[in-house]
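PROTOCOL LOG
Step 1. Enter all chains and additional molecules of the complex.
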Amino acid sequence: MEQLALLIAATLNAGTVLAFAALGLLINERAGIVNLGAEGIMLVAAIAGFATCAHTGNDWLSFAAGMGAGALLALVFGWLVIWLNTNQYASGLALALFGAGFSAFVGISYTQAKLPERVHYQIAGLADIPFIGPALFKQHPMVYLAIALTVGLAWFFNRSRAGLVLRAVGESPDSAHALGYPVRRIRLLAVVVGGALCGLSGAYISVIYTPLWVEGMVAGKGWIALALTTFATWRPARVLLGAYLFGGVTMLQFHLQGEGVEVSSQLLTMLPYLATIVVLVLISRNATWIRVNMPASLGKPFFPGS
Amino acid sequence: MLKLESRPAPSKLMSVASPVLALAITVVLGVILFMLLGKDPLRGLQVFFIEPVKSGYALSELALKATPLLLIALGLSLCFRSNVWNIGAEGQYIIGAIAAGGVAMMADKDTSRAIVLAILAAGVLGGMAWAGIVAFLRDKANANEILVSLMLVYVAEMVLSYLVYGPWKDPAGYNFPQTISFLDPTKIPRLVTGWRVNIGAVIALLAVAAFWLFLFRVYAGFQLQVGGLAPMAARYAGFSSRRALWMAMLGSGGMAGLAGALEAAGPLGQLTPHVPAGYGFAAIIVAFVGRLHPVGVVFSAILMSMFYIGGELAQSRLGLPKSLTGVFQGLLLFTLLACDTLIYYRLRWQSAPRGHAVAPAVAKGA
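Step 2. Run joint prediction.
Step 3. Record the structure below.
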């Protein structure tokens, strides 16, 4: 029972990493922009957050640093694809490759660094409940923030006027333009906010999740987050569910290794990646279902006035 | 105020000038970076652009590094031209190296030199099989090829890791994760004694000619490109997008696998966890900087090879991390994409904003 509680707690934690990035990418994609650079943004944000934490010891400053780095990179990406109309896939790849190189370059002096002692968070009172306490209420506040952000985004997309406009920009930029909305500015804002959330996710990885810096440590989580938006058919609540599902798969891998199960560690490490493929295949098989839910102008450039 | 104004027709001049301009901007950024780091920028330029070409041996090393980049980028050009986004060439390269290594380990001292052919064939087939998974899942289940091919890179790394830590580990290797060193008959023949460059460079140049013929002189190559540029037109003309998908994936997978085989049985000579060197990702940049054109790719592969060697030299001579290579590669692709805007637009000095830019939607792709 105690083991299970710890597994649930670890799953929520691992899911939180993916949730912030995937929710950020969801905002991008709802506005019609695919950002394949998520992995690169997360890596740069991870080193930005780690370095900040190593110097200040403050989690929240570190998160802010990660978000700032993410927003800045996303701004460059957004300027390229929205104002210069460069190919979104190619530009995203450029960002992913640049981020990998740049983070490794900047991070080289931090590979041996250790972070100051971590604070252990728990919700007073609730944390003492047997089983439920250790499973749910001994988490970093960010875990609850991810849930709050999901609820907020669901409300934003479905109930708010601004959310409606954002969706319109992703579905039919020409109509939104005709109605007088500044399509390019809205898209850029969505890209920057999305980048900041990817950055938050990256900083969470290096500061809380695995508090250290290793080159390439994001290890494909940015790409998995991209897959999650498809998996969730672009809905916030499903993004969160998907993130926990993948968090569970990742944690199961460590758990089985800990239990000494007779499976090679390489096979276990493959699991999240294989799971991503399997899930993509299962979801995508119904092409109509995907087409109905996908923002209609996803990945397509917009030329105002054409 | 500077304004972008659309050109009546895409500029032929700029499509060639843009990579040169992008390189120039990257160099300027590099100089600024060196100054920020307190290093002599002239020394930096020398390390990246003079030392890799200063002697016969240096040129041989340059060609050796450029070979896998060129081979993989040729295949990727085929893919990107047909709008198939294979970005998992790194994985196909790893599996190619594994398959080639598997054959190489069957050899003993008396094996005929002909085994090199089997090694290369195994590499090609390995890469094709790995890419074939992506094509199959895209074709049958509509699964996004970008994500699937990328996920398979991580899986391929784990397959390699499993083999070199497990069943293929050299029993006499002091417990290091590595296979036995491949025996002499399996070694890829070198072109010049004393230099490491091997017949892979010749194969790569032959492949350039073959890809040029296929893309511009063969009907199937034409069909493939129409499918990428204008999917609707291709459909009306009865060109099969399924066939284009399979052709592009298997072609690029085979090329990446071949590159893996040439590395494994060439300069590496054994399998270790360090087989993946990022060539599959760097080749994406090579393909774009080379304009997805077989001849352009030759130049950009050499350039990218200079970045690799320059990065290594910067580590030993200037005490900078090797990952500087990755920074410059990423910057180059970024600046190239930005400079490419000038193919479709020109910069105009304008006092007040007026009019709207209209761009050729088809030419810019999806």
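Step 4. Note key features.
Residues 241-268 of chain B form the longest helix (28 residues).
Chain B is about 65% helix and 5% strand.
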